[in-house]
Amino acid sequence: MKKNRKSKKRGFKLGFAVLVIPVALVVAILVFRYIMGNPANFQGNNSANAALPGNYYGIIYKGGLIVPILMTLLLIVFTFIVERIIAISKGIGRGDVTEFVQDVKFLLVENDIAGALEACNEQQGSVANVVRAVLEKYQQLEKDTTLVKDQKLTALQKEVEEATSLELPALEQNLVVLATITSLGTLMGLLGTVLGMIRAFGALANAGAPDSVALAQGISEALVNTAFGIGTAAVALIFYNVFTTRIDKLTYSIDEAGFSLVQSYATNHV
Predict the structure, then answer these.
(1) What is the distance, to the nearest Å, from the Cα of residue 193 to the centroid of all Cα atoms in its chain?
(2) Which of 3, 98, 147, 188 is the most exposed place for a label (fewest CB within 10 A)?
(3) Helix (H, G, I), strand (E, B), or coil: what is residue 173?
(4) Assigned domain for 11 exists
(5) With 80 as the cut, is the pLDDT of residue 178 above it?
């Protein structure tokens, strides 16, 4: 039953991840073409001309074909930032995780299993789910007369590991996307920079007077893509580190609660 829930959850999130990419690409192309490429953003109402002074839509549009790709990456980053904030908030639960773990440890010292289960129902979230699963196993082992104490402790520790393995993937889901875009955004920005510099040097290589318009467009393309790529990578990196830090704290809380449950059983059952 647990495995079925796990596979359904993964399938849903995998489908969500696959859907986000084409949708973000379509949105980026539409924004690039019809908003940033609006003729009103350029001199002479012609997108082939230079952008109006101070018109950032027109300036970004002159970044070239790499800009929609970078916009797609940025939209994907923002989408998964929102998705991870929601998922990790659910994983944390309703109250403070540290206080919840301390309350559970106190209740275990008092051997109040029912009170600990009630605390789990109030807290909810990933830590509470693990603790609840282990507490239910705890109660089963108390009634089991076929196993010796060491076997029961081993079974309890195994339950901690299994319950943790069910919760952690949901917390870490899609973080690989942010990690990938951290590098990919920089590389795509660098590609746009190289293409812009090629255009700029091509304008300088013309016989006679250099084409100043083509030179300016090439430099603009290079700088816009550099800024866009670095900005996208920076946002992805910052939130990736924020999320992994939060997940590490939750993992530590799960480990602490699981250790307390095993020790409580060892202490209360001679």
Answers:
(1) 27
(2) 3
(3) coil
(4) no
(5) yes
Q: Which of 78, 110, 92, 114 is nearest to 260 (CA)?
A: 110
User: What distance in Å separates the CA atoms of residue 68 and residue 33, rounded to the nearest whole number?
Assistant: 9
Amino acid identity at 1: M
**Which DSSP symbol is given to 258?**
H
Question: What three-state secondary structure class fits 96?
Answer: coil
User: Does residue 79 register a pLDDT over 90?
Assistant: yes
* Enclosing domain of residue 120: 97-171+254-268
Domain total of the chain? 1
Q: What pLDDT does residue 3 have? A: 45
Task: Please tell me the distance from the alpha carbon of residue 116 to that of residue 100, in angstroms, as a whole number.
Answer: 10
> Over the range 217-254, which residues count as b (16 or more CB within 10 Å of their CB) and which as e?
bbbbbbbbbbbbbeebbebbbebbeebeebbeebbebb
pTM of the predicted model as reported, rounded to 2 decimal places: 0.81
What does the angle CA 216 – CA 25 – CA 17 come to, to the nearest 5 degrees?
140
Structure confidence by residue, pLDDT tens digits, 82-132 = 999 998 888 888 888 888 888 888 887 787 888 888 888 888 888 888 888
Residue 76: pLDDT over 90: yes
Token pair for 120: 């789990």
Hey, CA dihedral for 16, 21, 27, 28, is it positive or negative?
A: positive
Chain centroid to Cα 20, Å, comes to 13
Domain-embedded: residue 124: yes
How many CB atoms are located within 10 Å of the residue 67 CB?
23
- Using DSSP's 3-state secondary structure scheme, residue 110 falls into coil
Rounded Cα gap, residues 141 and 113, in angstroms: 13
Distance CA 182, CA 173 (A): 16
Q: Specify the higher pLDDT residue, 216 or 254.
A: 254
